[in-house]
């Protein structure tokens, strides 16, 4: 599989995880919803990074993916995004590790907030990819 196919597969999986996060929210599986929201953001970002810079780091840290990698590929839009969403991005990464490696429960409000963060990350990545294809 070439890098274009891998990129498309990562983005598709990111969108699938976002749908799964919303479904798990609807059935009260908030821990899974939080996990899925993180996976959605991470995989979509990595798919776009593969397209824009030809690689992506082996990390689960959303702040690193956005601040260090997307900023290089996308510039100003990332600064604006981080001003609005940076703290919540860090919280989603922390929640991911808690949901994966610790016994921590999340409430509906957490899941809703983290799904929103994931949606915003995906929108940022889409904008960056569109700008790169136009320029």
SS field, number of helical segments:
5
Molecular shape: globular
Mean pLDDT: 93
In CATH, the architecture is Up-down Bundle
Per CATH, what is the topology?
Answer: Four Helix Bundle (Hemerythrin (Met), subunit A)
Counting DSSP E segments of at least 2 residues, the number of strands comes to 0
- Low-confidence parts, pLDDT < 50 over ≥5 residues? none
How are the secondary structure elements laid out?
Elements: H1 3-26, H2 30-53, H3 62-74, H4 76-101, H5 108-134
Question: Please, could you describe this protein's structure?
Answer:
This protein has 135 residues and is mainly α. The chain has a single domain (3-134), classed as Nucleotidyltransferases  domain 2 (Four Helix Bundle (Hemerythrin (Met), subunit A), Up-down Bundle), CATH 1.20.120.330. Helices cover 84% and strands 0% of the residues. It is built from five helices and no strands. It has helices at 3-26, 30-53, 62-74, 76-101, 108-134. The longest helix has 27 residues, at 108-134. The chain starts with a helix and ends with a helix. 42% of the residues are buried. The model has no long low-confidence stretch (mean pLDDT 93).
């Amino acid at each position: 599989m070439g890098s274009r196919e891998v990129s498309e597969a990562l983005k598709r999986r990111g969108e699938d995880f976002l749908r799964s996060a919303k479904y798990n929210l609807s059935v009260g599986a908030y821990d899974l919803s939080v996990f899925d929201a993180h996976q959605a953001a991470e995989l979509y970002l990595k798919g776009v990074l593969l397209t824009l810079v030809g690689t992506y780091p082996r990390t689960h840290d959303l702040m690193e993916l956005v601040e260090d990698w997307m900023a290089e590929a996308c510039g100003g839009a990332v600064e604006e995004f981080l001003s609005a969403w940076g703290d919540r991005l860090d919280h989603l990464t922390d929640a991911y590790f808690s949901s994966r490696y610790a016994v921590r429960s999340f409430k509906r409000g957490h899941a809703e907030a983290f799904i929103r963060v994931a949606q915003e990350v995906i929108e940022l990545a889409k904008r960056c990819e569109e700008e790169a294809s136009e320029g």
